[in-house]
Protein backbone atom coordinates (compact mmCIF):
# COMPACT_ATOMS: atom_id res chain seq x y z
CA UNK A 1 0.00 0.00 0.00
CA UNK A 2 1.31 3.45 -0.96
CA UNK A 3 0.87 4.99 2.48
CA UNK A 4 2.12 8.47 1.55
CA UNK A 5 -0.30 8.73 -1.39
CA UNK A 6 -3.13 7.43 0.78
CA UNK A 7 -2.53 10.07 3.48
CA UNK A 8 -2.48 12.86 0.89
CA UNK A 9 -5.66 11.48 -0.67
CA UNK A 10 -7.41 11.40 2.72
CA UNK A 11 -6.42 15.03 3.23
CA UNK A 12 -7.93 15.93 -0.14
CA UNK A 13 -11.15 14.09 0.76
CA UNK A 14 -11.88 16.18 3.83
CA UNK A 15 -14.73 18.30 2.40
CA UNK A 16 -13.31 21.61 3.59
CA UNK A 17 -10.30 21.11 1.32
CA UNK A 18 -10.52 22.98 -1.98
CA UNK A 19 -9.05 20.11 -3.97
CA UNK A 20 -7.84 20.78 -7.48
CA UNK A 21 -8.94 18.32 -10.14
CA UNK A 22 -5.42 17.50 -11.26
CA UNK A 23 -4.21 16.94 -7.67
CA UNK A 24 -6.76 14.30 -6.73
CA UNK A 25 -6.49 12.65 -10.14
CA UNK A 26 -2.72 12.38 -9.77
CA UNK A 27 -3.12 10.76 -6.34
CA UNK A 28 -5.78 8.28 -7.47
CA UNK A 29 -3.63 7.35 -10.47
CA UNK A 30 -0.80 6.33 -8.10
CA UNK A 31 -3.07 4.01 -6.09
CA UNK A 32 -3.68 0.47 -7.32
CA UNK A 33 -4.60 -1.42 -4.13
CA UNK A 34 -8.01 0.21 -3.66
CA UNK A 35 -9.51 -2.54 -1.51
CA UNK A 36 -6.72 -2.12 1.02
CA UNK A 37 -7.19 1.67 1.00
CA UNK A 38 -10.94 1.30 1.54
CA UNK A 39 -10.43 -1.17 4.40
CA UNK A 40 -7.99 1.24 6.06
CA UNK A 41 -10.38 4.19 5.62
CA UNK A 42 -13.24 2.18 7.09
CA UNK A 43 -11.31 1.66 10.33
CA UNK A 44 -12.26 5.28 11.07
CA UNK A 45 -15.57 5.46 9.20
CA UNK A 46 -13.90 7.60 6.52
CA UNK A 47 -15.10 5.65 3.47
CA UNK A 48 -18.20 7.78 2.83
CA UNK A 49 -16.13 10.98 2.62
CA UNK A 50 -13.49 9.26 0.49
CA UNK A 51 -16.07 7.89 -1.94
CA UNK A 52 -18.01 11.17 -2.03
CA UNK A 53 -14.95 13.15 -3.12
CA UNK A 54 -14.00 10.54 -5.73
CA UNK A 55 -17.52 10.72 -7.20
CA UNK A 56 -17.41 14.54 -7.10
CA UNK A 57 -14.48 14.44 -9.51
CA UNK A 58 -16.02 11.64 -11.59
CA UNK A 59 -13.09 9.31 -10.96
CA UNK A 60 -13.59 5.65 -11.84
CA UNK A 61 -12.76 2.91 -9.36
CA UNK A 62 -12.25 -0.79 -10.06
CA UNK A 63 -15.63 -2.56 -10.08
CA UNK A 64 -14.95 -4.44 -6.84
CA UNK A 65 -13.87 -1.27 -5.01
CA UNK A 66 -16.86 0.67 -6.40
CA UNK A 67 -19.28 -1.96 -5.14
CA UNK A 68 -17.58 -2.10 -1.74
CA UNK A 69 -17.88 1.69 -1.32
CA UNK A 70 -21.55 1.66 -2.31
CA UNK A 71 -22.31 -1.08 0.21
CA UNK A 72 -20.44 0.73 2.99
CA UNK A 73 -22.13 4.09 2.30
CA UNK A 74 -25.58 2.46 2.28
CA UNK A 75 -24.83 0.63 5.50
CA UNK A 76 -23.65 3.87 7.15
CA UNK A 77 -26.87 5.59 6.11
CA UNK A 78 -29.15 2.86 7.46
CA UNK A 79 -27.11 2.47 10.66
CA UNK A 80 -27.12 6.22 11.32
CA UNK A 81 -30.85 6.44 10.61
CA UNK A 82 -31.42 3.73 13.25
CA UNK A 83 -29.20 5.62 15.70
CA UNK A 84 -31.16 8.84 15.11
CA UNK A 85 -34.42 6.97 15.83
CA UNK A 86 -32.94 5.85 19.13
CA UNK A 87 -31.64 9.36 19.88
CA UNK A 88 -35.15 10.71 19.29
CA UNK A 89 -36.66 8.18 21.71
CA UNK A 90 -34.05 8.90 24.37
CA UNK A 91 -34.37 12.68 24.05
CA UNK A 92 -38.17 12.60 24.23
CA UNK A 93 -38.09 10.29 27.27
CA UNK A 94 -35.63 12.58 29.03
CA UNK A 95 -37.68 15.67 28.18
CA UNK A 96 -40.83 14.04 29.57
CA UNK A 97 -38.94 13.47 32.83
CA UNK A 98 -37.39 16.99 32.94
CA UNK A 99 -33.86 15.67 32.36
CA UNK A 100 -31.48 17.91 30.44
CA UNK A 101 -29.32 16.05 27.93
CA UNK A 102 -26.80 17.05 25.27
CA UNK A 103 -25.97 15.05 22.13
CA UNK A 104 -22.19 14.82 21.73
CA UNK A 105 -19.80 14.36 18.80
CA UNK A 106 -21.21 12.31 15.92
CA UNK A 107 -24.78 12.37 17.23
CA UNK A 108 -24.78 16.14 16.73
CA UNK A 109 -22.35 16.47 13.82
CA UNK A 110 -24.25 14.07 11.57
CA UNK A 111 -27.16 16.51 11.78
CA UNK A 112 -25.55 19.97 11.86
CA UNK A 113 -22.29 19.62 9.91
CA UNK A 114 -22.37 17.08 7.09
CA UNK A 115 -24.70 17.22 4.07
CA UNK A 116 -25.43 13.47 4.04
CA UNK A 117 -26.41 11.29 6.98
CA UNK A 118 -23.98 8.62 5.78
CA UNK A 119 -21.02 11.06 5.89
CA UNK A 120 -20.60 10.84 9.68
CA UNK A 121 -20.83 7.24 10.90
CA UNK A 122 -20.44 6.62 14.61
CA UNK A 123 -19.76 3.58 16.74
CA UNK A 124 -22.31 4.66 19.32
CA UNK A 125 -24.48 7.53 20.52
CA UNK A 126 -22.88 9.78 23.14
CA UNK A 127 -25.21 11.74 25.43
CA UNK A 128 -24.20 14.01 28.33
CA UNK A 129 -26.39 14.31 31.44
CA UNK A 130 -26.04 15.85 34.89
CA UNK A 131 -24.40 13.64 37.52
CA UNK A 132 -27.42 14.12 39.77
CA UNK A 133 -29.64 12.39 37.18
CA UNK A 134 -27.61 9.18 36.88
CA UNK A 135 -29.96 6.89 38.83
CA UNK A 136 -33.08 8.32 37.19
CA UNK A 137 -31.60 7.96 33.70
CA UNK A 138 -30.50 4.37 34.37
CA UNK A 139 -34.05 3.47 35.40
CA UNK A 140 -35.55 5.14 32.31
CA UNK A 141 -33.13 3.38 29.96
CA UNK A 142 -33.96 0.02 31.56
CA UNK A 143 -37.69 0.69 31.12
CA UNK A 144 -37.07 1.50 27.45
CA UNK A 145 -35.54 -1.94 26.91
CA UNK A 146 -31.82 -1.12 26.94
CA UNK A 147 -29.41 -3.75 28.26
CA UNK A 148 -25.76 -3.53 29.32
CA UNK A 149 -23.09 -4.50 26.79
CA UNK A 150 -20.81 -6.83 28.72
CA UNK A 151 -18.06 -6.86 26.09
CA UNK A 152 -17.95 -3.08 25.48
CA UNK A 153 -14.55 -1.42 25.59
CA UNK A 154 -14.25 -0.09 29.14
CA UNK A 155 -11.01 1.86 28.68
CA UNK A 156 -12.89 5.19 28.98
CA UNK A 157 -15.68 3.88 31.21
CA UNK A 158 -14.80 6.21 34.09
CA UNK A 159 -16.38 9.06 32.09
CA UNK A 160 -19.66 7.33 31.29
CA UNK A 161 -22.11 4.72 32.56
CA UNK A 162 -21.82 1.11 31.34
CA UNK A 163 -22.51 0.98 27.62
CA UNK A 164 -26.17 0.26 26.85
CA UNK A 165 -27.60 -1.39 23.74
CA UNK A 166 -30.96 -1.73 22.01
CA UNK A 167 -32.03 -3.10 18.62
CA UNK A 168 -33.50 -0.60 16.15
CA UNK A 169 -34.50 -1.49 12.58
CA UNK A 170 -32.27 -4.56 12.74
CA UNK A 171 -29.18 -2.65 13.93
CA UNK A 172 -27.69 -2.95 17.43
CA UNK A 173 -27.36 0.63 18.70
CA UNK A 174 -24.90 1.33 21.53
CA UNK A 175 -25.48 4.33 23.79
CA UNK A 176 -22.95 5.87 26.18
CA UNK A 177 -24.49 8.10 28.85
CA UNK A 178 -21.73 10.48 29.93
CA UNK A 179 -21.47 12.24 33.26
CA UNK A 180 -18.26 14.01 32.21
CA UNK A 181 -17.31 15.70 28.96
CA UNK A 182 -13.56 15.01 29.11
CA UNK A 183 -10.89 12.98 30.81
CA UNK A 184 -7.15 13.52 31.07
CA UNK A 185 -4.30 11.25 30.00
CA UNK A 186 -4.56 9.40 33.34
CA UNK A 187 -8.26 8.70 32.64
CA UNK A 188 -9.42 11.13 35.33
CA UNK A 189 -12.81 12.55 34.25
CA UNK A 190 -13.63 16.23 34.44
CA UNK A 191 -16.00 18.91 33.08
CA UNK A 192 -19.62 18.06 33.85
CA UNK A 193 -22.81 19.40 32.26
CA UNK A 194 -23.12 21.86 35.15
CA UNK A 195 -19.59 23.17 34.44
CA UNK A 196 -20.43 24.33 30.90
CA UNK A 197 -20.04 28.08 30.45
CA UNK A 198 -22.31 28.67 27.46
CA UNK A 199 -25.94 27.90 26.57
CA UNK A 200 -26.60 24.91 24.35
CA UNK A 201 -27.83 25.01 20.76
CA UNK A 202 -30.55 22.86 19.21
CA UNK A 203 -31.25 21.02 15.98
CA UNK A 204 -34.53 19.43 14.95
CA UNK A 205 -34.45 15.66 14.56
CA UNK A 206 -36.94 14.39 11.95
CA UNK A 207 -38.47 17.90 12.02
CA UNK A 208 -40.20 17.19 15.32
CA UNK A 209 -37.74 16.53 18.15
CA UNK A 210 -35.45 19.35 19.42
CA UNK A 211 -32.05 17.98 20.45
CA UNK A 212 -29.49 20.05 22.37
CA UNK A 213 -25.80 20.16 21.49
CA UNK A 214 -22.77 22.13 22.64
CA UNK A 215 -22.31 25.80 21.80
CA UNK A 216 -19.71 26.50 19.09
CA UNK A 217 -16.73 27.31 21.30
CA UNK A 218 -17.22 24.36 23.66
CA UNK A 219 -18.01 22.08 20.72
CA UNK A 220 -14.67 22.85 19.05
CA UNK A 221 -12.85 22.43 22.35
CA UNK A 222 -14.50 19.06 22.97
CA UNK A 223 -13.74 17.82 19.45
CA UNK A 224 -10.06 18.77 19.77
CA UNK A 225 -9.74 17.39 23.28
CA UNK A 226 -11.40 14.11 22.42
CA UNK A 227 -9.36 13.68 19.23
CA UNK A 228 -5.91 14.37 20.65
CA UNK A 229 -5.73 14.95 24.40
CA UNK A 230 -8.17 12.86 26.47
CA UNK A 231 -6.03 9.72 26.25
CA UNK A 232 -2.44 8.85 25.55
CA UNK A 233 -1.68 9.43 21.93
CA UNK A 234 -0.88 5.82 21.01
CA UNK A 235 -3.81 5.34 18.67
CA UNK A 236 -4.06 5.51 14.89
CA UNK A 237 -4.69 8.98 13.53
CA UNK A 238 -8.45 9.29 13.04
CA UNK A 239 -9.06 11.20 9.80
CA UNK A 240 -12.81 11.43 10.46
CA UNK A 241 -12.15 13.31 13.70
CA UNK A 242 -9.81 15.66 11.84
CA UNK A 243 -12.59 16.24 9.32
CA UNK A 244 -14.99 17.06 12.20
CA UNK A 245 -12.67 19.72 13.59
CA UNK A 246 -11.70 21.40 10.33
CA UNK A 247 -15.18 21.41 8.83
CA UNK A 248 -16.81 22.69 12.00
CA UNK A 249 -14.31 25.55 12.27
CA UNK A 250 -14.81 26.46 8.61
CA UNK A 251 -18.61 26.18 8.55
CA UNK A 252 -19.19 28.26 11.68
CA UNK A 253 -16.20 30.59 11.51
CA UNK A 254 -18.43 33.67 11.34
CA UNK A 255 -20.48 32.60 14.39
CA UNK A 256 -17.58 31.45 16.57
CA UNK A 257 -16.20 33.96 19.07
CA UNK A 258 -12.50 33.56 18.37
CA UNK A 259 -11.54 35.88 21.23
CA UNK A 260 -13.21 33.41 23.60
CA UNK A 261 -11.37 30.54 21.89
CA UNK A 262 -8.02 32.29 22.32
CA UNK A 263 -8.77 33.13 25.97
CA UNK A 264 -10.37 29.90 27.22
CA UNK A 265 -9.60 27.16 24.68
CA UNK A 266 -6.07 27.68 23.40
CA UNK A 267 -5.74 24.02 22.38
CA UNK A 268 -8.23 24.75 19.59
CA UNK A 269 -5.94 27.41 18.11
CA UNK A 270 -2.92 25.13 18.44
CA UNK A 271 -4.75 22.14 16.92
CA UNK A 272 -5.96 24.16 13.93
CA UNK A 273 -2.49 25.63 13.45
CA UNK A 274 -0.90 22.17 13.25
CA UNK A 275 -3.72 20.67 11.16
CA UNK A 276 -3.23 23.53 8.69
CA UNK A 277 0.07 21.82 7.83
CA UNK A 278 -1.95 18.83 6.62
CA UNK A 279 -5.16 20.35 5.19
CA UNK A 280 -4.78 24.07 4.36
CA UNK A 281 -7.41 26.24 6.01
CA UNK A 282 -9.17 29.08 4.20
CA UNK A 283 -7.50 32.48 4.32
CA UNK A 284 -10.59 33.88 6.03
CA UNK A 285 -10.32 31.37 8.88
CA UNK A 286 -6.56 31.86 9.21
CA UNK A 287 -7.08 35.62 9.56
CA UNK A 288 -9.56 35.01 12.39
CA UNK A 289 -7.21 32.58 14.13
CA UNK A 290 -4.25 34.92 13.80
CA UNK A 291 -1.51 32.28 13.85
CA UNK A 292 1.75 32.21 11.92
CA UNK A 293 1.43 30.09 8.77
CA UNK A 294 5.17 30.00 8.10
CA UNK A 295 5.72 26.89 10.27
CA UNK A 296 6.63 23.80 8.29
CA UNK A 297 6.17 20.28 9.63
CA UNK A 298 7.67 16.96 8.64
CA UNK A 299 5.33 14.12 7.63
CA UNK A 300 2.13 16.13 8.16
CA UNK A 301 -0.87 13.82 8.22
CA UNK A 302 1.15 10.72 9.16
CA UNK A 303 0.91 8.83 12.41
CA UNK A 304 3.68 7.70 14.75
CA UNK A 305 4.32 4.25 13.20
CA UNK A 306 6.05 2.96 16.31
CA UNK A 307 5.20 0.92 19.38
CA UNK A 308 2.56 0.34 20.74
CA UNK A 309 0.61 0.81 17.48
CA UNK A 310 3.08 -1.65 15.97
CA UNK A 311 3.59 -4.68 18.27
CA UNK A 312 7.16 -5.56 19.21
CA UNK A 313 6.72 -8.90 17.43
CA UNK A 314 6.46 -6.92 14.16
CA UNK A 315 9.66 -4.90 14.66
CA UNK A 316 11.92 -7.42 12.97
CA UNK A 317 9.74 -7.74 9.86
CA UNK A 318 9.39 -3.96 9.51
CA UNK A 319 13.03 -3.24 10.34
CA UNK A 320 13.96 -3.19 14.03
CA UNK A 321 16.06 -0.03 14.12
CA UNK A 322 13.71 1.92 11.84
CA UNK A 323 10.65 1.03 13.93
CA UNK A 324 12.48 1.72 17.19
CA UNK A 325 13.49 5.14 15.86
CA UNK A 326 9.89 5.90 14.91
CA UNK A 327 8.81 4.84 18.40
CA UNK A 328 11.24 7.15 20.16
CA UNK A 329 11.32 9.99 17.63
CA UNK A 330 7.95 10.49 15.90
CA UNK A 331 7.51 13.43 13.52
CA UNK A 332 7.34 16.98 14.85
CA UNK A 333 3.84 17.35 13.33
CA UNK A 334 2.60 14.37 15.32
CA UNK A 335 4.20 15.56 18.57
CA UNK A 336 2.82 19.10 18.28
CA UNK A 337 -0.64 17.76 17.47
CA UNK A 338 -0.81 15.36 20.41
CA UNK A 339 0.73 17.64 23.02
CA UNK A 340 -1.28 20.76 22.32
CA UNK A 341 1.23 23.25 20.94
CA UNK A 342 2.32 24.53 17.55
CA UNK A 343 5.52 24.94 15.59
CA UNK A 344 6.36 28.29 17.15
CA UNK A 345 7.53 26.55 20.33
CA UNK A 346 10.44 24.17 20.94
CA UNK A 347 9.71 20.52 20.23
CA UNK A 348 11.95 19.24 23.04
CA UNK A 349 9.43 19.44 25.96
CA UNK A 350 6.86 17.50 23.94
CA UNK A 351 9.38 14.85 23.01
CA UNK A 352 10.07 14.49 26.76
CA UNK A 353 6.32 14.11 27.35
CA UNK A 354 6.24 11.45 24.65
CA UNK A 355 9.03 9.43 26.29
CA UNK A 356 7.30 9.74 29.67
CA UNK A 357 4.06 8.47 28.14
CA UNK A 358 5.91 5.55 26.54
CA UNK A 359 7.25 4.48 29.94
CA UNK A 360 3.81 4.89 31.54
CA UNK A 361 2.21 2.83 28.78
CA UNK A 362 4.87 0.13 29.19
CA UNK A 363 4.33 0.00 32.95
CA UNK A 364 0.54 -0.30 32.59
CA UNK A 365 0.83 -3.08 30.01
CA UNK A 366 3.26 -5.02 32.20
CA UNK A 367 0.93 -4.63 35.21
CA UNK A 368 -2.03 -5.76 33.10
CA UNK A 369 -0.09 -8.82 31.91
CA UNK A 370 0.83 -9.70 35.51
CA UNK A 371 -2.79 -9.36 36.65
CA UNK A 372 -4.01 -11.47 33.74
CA UNK A 373 -1.46 -14.29 34.09
CA UNK A 374 -0.69 -14.34 37.82
CA UNK A 375 -3.54 -12.45 39.49
CA UNK A 376 -5.21 -15.69 40.65
CA UNK A 377 -2.07 -16.84 42.46
CA UNK A 378 -1.17 -13.41 43.82
CA UNK A 379 -4.83 -12.55 44.56
CA UNK A 380 -4.59 -9.36 42.52
CA UNK A 381 -8.02 -8.13 41.36
CA UNK A 382 -8.51 -7.46 37.64
CA UNK A 383 -9.00 -3.82 36.51
Automatic annotation (TrEMBL):
Keywords linked to the UniProt accession: Transferase
InterPro entries the record matches: NTP_transf_5 (IPR039498)
An example Gene Ontology molecular-function term: transferase activity
Protein name in UniProt: Uncharacterized nucleotidyltransferase
Species of origin: Flexilinea flocculi
